[in-house]
Fold:
Amino acid sequence: MDTFDVFDPTFRADPYPVYARFRAIAPVYRGRPPTPGDHDTGWWYLFRYADVAAVLKDSRFGRAIGPALDELPPPVPPAEREPFWDMYAHWTLALEPPEHTRQRTLLNRAFTARVVDTLRPGIAARAADLLDGLAPRGRFDVVADYAFPLTLSVIAELIGIPPRDLERVKEWSLTIAAVLDYKPTWDVMAAGNRMAREFGVYLAEIAAARRARPADDLITRLQAAGGEESLSQEEVIALCVMLLFAGHETTVNLIAAGALLLQEDPAQAALLSARPKLTDAAVDEFLRLHSPIQATTRIAYADVNVGGHLIRRGESATLLLGSANRDPAAFPDPDRLDIARRPNRHLAFGRGIHYCLGAPLAVAQGGIALRLLFERCAQWRMATAPSWSETFGFRGLTELQITHRSG
Ligand code: HEM
Structure:
């Protein structure tokens, strides 16, 4: 049988044909871990929509080595603990109930659809400002010049990070992406630890300033939470780092992939400009076809039968969201862009208790950014072939150079 190898450059360059093959020949596949040196008690890859969706909702699978697995060795031995992972251990995504529920209840209030609606005018103004500067150039990079600064400034402002510090924060954010992708090298890990220390010190200073003089931002609100929801300083800092990272890296990839998909399909682009009400549905379709998070991992807390295979307690499973989202059993004609697709219950934001906190914000930003790009840069064309990142878990365009006539 074919071997599924996440390190294969051909797979990374274009994962979709590989996903299609494995959905057909070995949809529940046991192989080598995606991170060298990970505890190799057995590693599973799930390719089918039904299996991925089921595991995401199943409380017998989780993110943490919780009490249920006390007797198993932790994935990182205590002696080798690193500042990066100490910080990560406080992230919502790393927690199980009841800690997860406590954090999530607090954070949910900051990211409801109603809150996001109040942010829309500011996002649109910022996107328009950026395009004012870019459009006269006639050529620019949608990723670095537009999507990146837009999403970074939106989430940074929400958190309470001053605009003058965005360059520094951008570097830290790129470092997090590198560590969290599968297979961090020692150099990457060392940079991650440095980032955790420096970003931690930086945020601690802002936090102290907000305690002295509260502002209308998340770092103030997270510190003000009381009673059962109160957070330690370490948690506040870790959550700000988490939100900063989760809040923009993926959204950049959504915007760039959406631009590319519409460029490749003029009929769908024309449909969207004729029917702007389809914007949110179109964004969902971009997320389905090019999921910014292609894979996530769960650990089995019990022996569970998945698609006819027994995943044993303590074993890990990589859930291939990017494959599930192109499964013909869930989406007719799955490789085709259909911005009016209904239903479109894609898994790009996950499912279950860890369902993306920022989904309403991401959809709003994606829609606004793409609508304005197409309005302001009439008839744009790609200046060079699009290039995709070589990473596996987070997938996105590294650049999308375009030329255009101003509209
Ligand atoms: C297109 C953009 C985005 C995509 C594709 C995306 C995708 C995801 C996915 C797949 C998960 C679940 C991971 C899992 O279950 O293992 C997740 C969780 C999460 N996302 Fe997003 N995300 C996006 C934007 C955002 C934004 C804008 C924010 C914050 C402002 C955010 C914050 C989070 C947080 C905090 C979690 C963890 C939730 C929990 O553990 O309960 N994400 N996201």
Remarks:
- DSSP finds 16 helices and twelve strands in the chain.
